[in-house]
Each structure stands twice: as C-alpha cells, then as structure tokens.
Amino acid sequence: MSPDTRPRRGLRLTLAAAIAMTAALTAPAAGAAPATSRDSVPVPGAPGLGDPLFPLDGNGGYTVDRYLLDFDWQAPKTPFRAKATIRATATTELSRFNLDFAGNTLHEVTIDGTPAEAVREGDELIVTPWLPLPRKSTFTVTVTYTADPTQIRHRDDAIEDYGWIPTPSGTVLYPQPNGAKMVFPANDHPSQRAPVTFRVTAPTGLTAVANGRLVSREPLTGGRERWTYDSEQPVSTQLVQMAVGRLTAVDRPTTNGVPLRDFVPDELVDRTDEYLDLTPQHLRWLEQRLGAYPFKRYGVLVGDTDLGVALETQTLSLVPKADLLGTRVDAERTLVHELVHQWFGDSVALRTWSDLWLSEGHARFYERLYSEEHGGDSFEAAMKTAYTNHNLWRRDFGAPAEPTEPNLFKRMRYDGSALVLYALREKVGDETFRKIDRAWVTKYRGRTASTQDFMDLASAVSGQDLASFLRPWLYGPTTPPMPNHPDWVATPVP
C-alpha cells in the first residue's frame, strides 16, 4: 500500500486482545498433529487468532480451502444479493466456529446443505452445526446475505477509508487491513490464505474484474452478464479485489512470460497510457533484483475515486487516478511500489500485522531506489532525512516491528522501515543484501513468514549474526548508529 497521508498516534493492548490471544494459544494450531480419537472432544473454534493488533481477526479450529463468491451486483451504493460458499477443513473437532463478517444483512447459513444456527456478535458470525465437525473433515459453509456496498470504515492513518468504495459507475474494494469482512464472511487475517472464485453478475455494458484469470463471460437474460474469475493461487483476504464499472481492458506487452492487462475507466484510457505503458520496464527491473515474478499475470486497476491510496491487491494493483495524472516520477513511484508488493506482502505473506514493516519497508526501499535511477530524488538523501526523524517516529508510531493498531500505517512503516533495510545494506554490502532479499522471496514464496524468519535467513545468507544488529533497529527505544555514516544524527527525544 502506498499512502498519500502522513503517519500519527498509539494504543494499548486491550483486555479483548488478551482474551483472544489466550483462546488462540489454547486452541489447536492449524496443521497440528491430530489427537487420538479417545481424546477428541468437540470444542469451539477460537474467535480470533490473537494477533496483538487485531486479536479477533481470523478464526481458529479450521482452515479455508477455497472461497466461492457470488455477487448479483446492481448499481453504485445499491444493496444486492450475495452468497459466499466456503470450503474448509476442521483442524480440531468443532462444536462451533466463527467467521469474520461485518454489516450486511444475513439470511441463511448452511453446512453441507443443512441449516445451521448462526448468531452475530459485533464483527463475528458464530456458526453452530447440528452435529460436531470431526477433526480433519472437510465441510462447506454457505452464507446467503444482502451485501451493502455503502459499508465503509475509516482509519486515521495512511489507509483512510476502506471496505466498499464507490465510483461514478460502480465500485472497487479497499479491504486492507481488515475490510474483507465487510464484503464477505471470511477468515480475515493476512496469514490465512485461500484461492477465491468470483462470479459477478452485472448490467450489460459494465465490466467486472477480480484477482486472477477471467474464466468466462456469459450473457444472461434481462440485460445482464456473469463474469467468472479464478485467483489461481491462494490470496490473503486483505488482498482481494473485485471491481465493477465502465472499464476498458488494456493489454500491455507480455513481459518475461507474464501477461499484463490493465483495467482503466473508459474516459481515462488515453490519459493514463503513457505511464501504464511503463509496467514492462518496471517488471524487468525488479526481476533483475528479486528473481521471477511470483504470479501468473499482473495488471493495474485504475481507481476512479478521490481516495488517494494505492493498494497491492494480488495480481491487480489498485492505483487511484490522480497518481497517473501527475508527473512521471510520482506515477512511477506508486506503480513500482505496488508491483514490489507482489513479492513482499502478497507472495510472501505477513505472519502477523507487526511484520508489516517487511512488506511496506521493501516496497518503499525499491520504489526509492528505482526513482533515483529514473529522475527522482536521491535515495541516500531521503534515508538521511528518515534517520533524522527516526527517533520521533519511534516515539509517536512505535518501532518498525512494534506498531500499535492506530499507528500501523504511519510513516514508520514506510520510510522508517526502508531505513532499516538501508542500514542492513550498509552493514553487509549491496551484493549480500541482494542475496538476502532474493533468498527471502524464493524460500518463502507462496508462504507466510515473520520478522524472526527474516533475521534468521539474513544471518544464514550473510554468515554473520544479523539478528543482534537488526533487533535494536526493529524493537529498540532509540535509533542505532547508521553504518558508514557517522555524521548522521537522529533527533534525540527527551
């Protein structure tokens, strides 16, 4: 995600967080070895995964194998019929389980075709089957509801508004950080990934688009069409995208075997072509540094909104129109930033929200590195400025790997985290730094990984203990000295 706003403010861990963390820790972990049958007792799935920042996000007791989303989309800001079919596998014998589900009007929940009891508590949908679900069994939950595309929430950081975001002719999704639950019932945490099939019905003359591959486009009676997309690979719920509107599909040259297709509001095609035509160049530049692009296709969805936030939705980055109507330097910074995320944050997913620095820090690092090479500001000068402010950001927004919930998408997770990577490069040299990053996106491709995983891998690749170097940068109360720059001074905080 690439923000236009300036990052602010802090929060304490709540009692709810502590309760949810306890529940998550005492519940069997996904993929844990099964207990013997005589020890198997039905238990409720944990109502959250215990993430310190969002303790009730995600759910315990099962893993999602696939989402099938049916949206009968009508018009901007107009409720419509929706159905979510969720194939899942129980990781313990379940007496009941939760789905993250906010707003919208619930109609019915079934499990394998049999009606189930469903109770809503805040953003949780608590589902109780008629009989417990055996451990390791697969089951299908179907939730029918009326989707409310006016569902929007607000954050006082770089995210701004999220959820359903209307456009003049349709809608786009801003699900980050946990807005997917406003769109469909989900296991809504970045560590929980599953393939998604979208079936979107919309009026003829509009285009529907979603993550992945267009499987089919079928004319229906009554002046409507059904568009079916398959994500092809598992997706974190924060990276799901589905948009409807007057959009033109624009194919760019296939680059290193990667098909490129953008979706642009009809009236903006000519005005955005010059900058969107640069994606092949961006892709080649990044592949030289990071290795092969990790997905089967890529494109940019141009958001016809006034919301100045870009988003790394998987295989289809959402870029606001304003970012493509200004200078080339600014446009390229956003385009490269979101493309970098396809490796960092999308392919290698976050284990917890505290690992966000790895995603946003790398996106900002390569964005600034590319920009310097293509007419933008000095990378080193930007890092020196970040170093000057780092203690202030550390105080106001938390250390890079210690955010608080209100400060998650503040400046520290962007330039402040890129500075950590800059310090690492200064410590080990450019060649070793490149080996670390390439090893990271290769080893953890298609998996989740944590800050500790990064420190361990960096140490293994470099042959030196980099954990002792990185911990003060990531967790310490003050900013350490910058290697090779003894003249750099971080503003002291009283």
TrEMBL record:
InterPro entries, per database record: Aminopeptidase_N-like_N, Aminopeptidase_N-like_N_sf, Peptidase_M1, Peptidase_M1_aminopeptidases, Peptidase_M1_dom, Peptidase_M4/M1_CTD_sf, TAT_signal
Membrane listed as a keyword: no
Any Gene Ontology CC annotation: extracellular space
Coiled-coil zones: none
Gene3D superfamilies assigned to the protein according to its UniProt record, in alphabetical order: Neutral Protease Domain 2, tricorn interacting facor f3 domain
Cofactor: Zn(2+)
GO molecular function: alanyl aminopeptidase activity; metalloaminopeptidase activity; peptide binding; zinc ion binding
Catalytic activity field: Release of an N-terminal amino acid, Xaa-|-Yaa- from a peptide, amide or arylamide. Xaa is preferably Ala, but may be most amino acids including Pro (slow action). When a terminal hydrophobic residue is followed by a prolyl residue, the two may be released as an intact Xaa-Pro dipeptide
GO biological process, one term: proteolysis
Keywords, comma-separated and alphabetical: Aminopeptidase, Hydrolase, Metal-binding, Metalloprotease, Protease, Zinc
EC number: 3.4.11.2
Family: Belongs to the peptidase M1 family.
PANTHER family in the record: PROTEASE M1 ZINC METALLOPROTEASE, PUROMYCIN-SENSITIVE AMINOPEPTIDASE-RELATED
Entry protein name: Aminopeptidase N
Species for this entry: Streptomyces lincolnensis
